[in-house]
Amino acid sequence: MAVALPVIFSNFRSSPSSSRSKISFNCSSASSKMELHNEGRTKFMEFPYVSAPHRKLMQHLISTVENRLGSQLLPCTLPPDVQYYQNQTGTAHASLHIRSGHKPSQSQIDFLLGSWIHSELPTGGALNITSLSAYLNSLTDAPNFLIELIQSSPTSLILILDLPPRKDLVFNPDYLHTFYEGTQLDTRRQILEKIPEVRPYISSSLYIRSLVSPTAIMVRIETEASQPGRVEELIKDNVDPIAKEVLDIWLDQCACGKREVGETERAFLEKRDGLIKTKTFEVDLGSSFPRLFGPEVADRVLGAIRDFFTV
Amino acid sequence: MAVALPVIFSNFRSSPSSSRSKISFNCSSASSKMELHNEGRTKFMEFPYVSAPHRKLMQHLISTVENRLGSQLLPCTLPPDVQYYQNQTGTAHASLHIRSGHKPSQSQIDFLLGSWIHSELPTGGALNITSLSAYLNSLTDAPNFLIELIQSSPTSLILILDLPPRKDLVFNPDYLHTFYEGTQLDTRRQILEKIPEVRPYISSSLYIRSLVSPTAIMVRIETEASQPGRVEELIKDNVDPIAKEVLDIWLDQCACGKREVGETERAFLEKRDGLIKTKTFEVDLGSSFPRLFGPEVADRVLGAIRDFFTV
Asked: What top-level branch of life does the organism fall under (chains A, B) (predicted)?
């Protein structure tokens, strides 16, 4: 994967397509917005640093969401240097793709955020993170969607896959029943748990631990160095089918399902959602971006996406 | 431990102290109430079927709570055949000890519930469960306390130790900070997690999983049959000091700490607490008691304690 690094790097710095992006960012016509979107999307969908099964899974998840919800989604209008960016020394590269939903009257989608991050490690290896998260708006109280794969060595992978609840489950057992018991989500977690190389992954942030559902898949896969390709095999045979199933459940029952949300409840939901987004921004993005990309790039990227996370 | 079984059994059936209990239950004077309490407490505090380190730990936890909160606690007034009971065939025995707090104006304690259950298993071994839970009332929103040790074989122990939150942590990050981050509760979980024989324990009930805090210790200790006494060693050296520390944190910061709770918040807290108790009664007690003690005994015991769990 390290071979791809300079290629991507030089492409971005000097290719005509990159210059076009910068120009189109200054235009406001629908066609140049689409051009900006399409260029960013192409780069994003490459997932250039991860293994084939990992890339295929991410591409499938994103295409599935786009096919199902496409008509409800606006193009990605992030500046080109936020859709794709790198640190000053060129050792860290990333792509970011955010699509808002149409106005709440036409869509239950708040926004979708997809990203990949590649960073060379001082130890010689590389850190690769790919993620897709989907936030719903207050037309519905149904859970959000989250998948994140973090690979810090050829033998180690962290998987976070969940439908994070948007209500206090202790106070809303019916909600727990509808989205978590009724959907049999826990059976997917149990399948993964049985694989010998799978261990629980416990986030160091208590807020993140509080955010996820009781059926959240948060696991660390540790394979033997003597079994090269085993992580990829596990992604292909185990992670892939389960992630697709969980996304399908989310699309059918959450993103496209209808829920009754009263006015008071809607106001409360907006407050709670807002808090979740603020804390996620702070805890997850706000702390890792400066470390990976330096303060300047982090400021630019975080500045451009802050609007999505603040109400 | 199986040796103790018939001794306890015959003691209960024919001893004069057991008959006295039945008489005193019909008296309502303060002194006979205390007699009923004291007899039940003596039996309860025996923890007759568990190992010495396990028994000592439970006795210490209960004495510590009683010493600290004693003046706020009413005596246990459960009928004698609920303070100590068994199934029809004499293969399952149990003791239950519940003490309410004085009126809310004088105490933040709703009630404390201690219990032990011993049940012979068809496979030849025995199941031993000991627990202590403490529920606070709406004078405070501080977390409750819960410890449960479940031993189903000489080489296997499940430990549940937590301060279950009384607020939605996602919506109340300050509360999360005060009681969970600030108290360094997670460091205790981390210590246990490092022991090679310790594995995470995941409750089959999603409601129970939702109830506990992100620092909850929910572990299964599985030792080798070739190392007899290893479970007891781990209780003595690891579980014991951590359980005592967590109880001290709860006593200092929750049971005896002062919190501002407004009227509206208090009403909501009462509703949420009520729901927790109803669901705990249903999921935990309501499902296991009939299985262990038969429907008749379960009805009697659950009938006597239902009042504590319903608002």
From this structure: Eukaryota
- Which of A178, A191, A206 is most worth mutating to test chain B (most B CB atoms within 10 A of its CB)? A206
Query: Chain B contacts of A143, Cβ < 8 Å?
Result: none
Interface contact A210, partner B, CB < 8 A: yes
> Token digits for B13?
């059936």
Instruction: Reduce the DSSP state of residue A198 to 3 states and report it.
Output: strand
* pTM for the structure as a whole: 0.89
Residue whose pair of structure tokens reads 């559902």 in the numeric block:
A213
Element (H, E) at B305: helix B286-309
What pLDDT digit, counting tens, does each position of A52-85 carry?
A: 999 999 999 999 999 999 899 999 999 999 999 9
**B199/chain A closest Cα distance in angstroms:** 9
What lies within 8 Å, CB to CB, of A162 at 6+ separation is: A145, A146, A212, A213, A215, A216, A217, A218
| Region label for B171, one of left (φ > 0), alpha (ψ between -120 and 50) or beta (otherwise) | alpha
Mark yes or no for CB contact B170/A275 under 8 Å.
yes
Q: How confident is the model at residue A28 (pLDDT cuts 50, 70, 90)?
A: low
Rounded Cα gap, residues A64 and A47, in angstroms: 16
Domains and CATH numbers, chain A: 39-262 (3.40.1500.20)
Chain B residue with minimal CA distance to A186? B206
ipTM value for the complex: 0.88
Q: What is the CA radius of gyration of chain A?
A: 19
Residue B115 backbone phi and psi in degrees, to 5: -155, 155
Q: Across the interface, which of A181, A200, A206 has its CB nearest the CB of B206? A: A181
Does residue A182 sit at the B interface (CB-CB below 8 Å)?
A: no
DSSP string, A103-147: PTTT-SEEEEEEEEEEEE-TTSSEEEEEEEEEEE-TT-----EEE
A236 pLDDT tier (thresholds 50, 70, 90) = very high
- What are the tens digits of pLDDT across the range B123-177? 889 999 999 999 999 999 999 999 999 999 999 999 999 999 999 999 999 999 9
List chain B residues with CB under 8 Å of A214.
206, 209-210
Among A215, A234, A115, residue whose Cα is nearest residue A169: A215
Quote the CA–CA distance of A234 and A194 in Å, as a whole number: 12
Q: Which of B168, B169, B170 should one mutate to test binding to chain A, selecting the residue with the greatest count of A CBs within 10 A?
A: B170
Q: For the residues of A210-274, what is the DSSP string, one character each? A: HHS-TT-EEEEEE--TTSTTHHHHHIIIIIHHHHHHHHHHIIIIIIS------HHHHHHHHHHHH
- Check: CB of residue B87 under 8 Å from CB of residue B297: yes
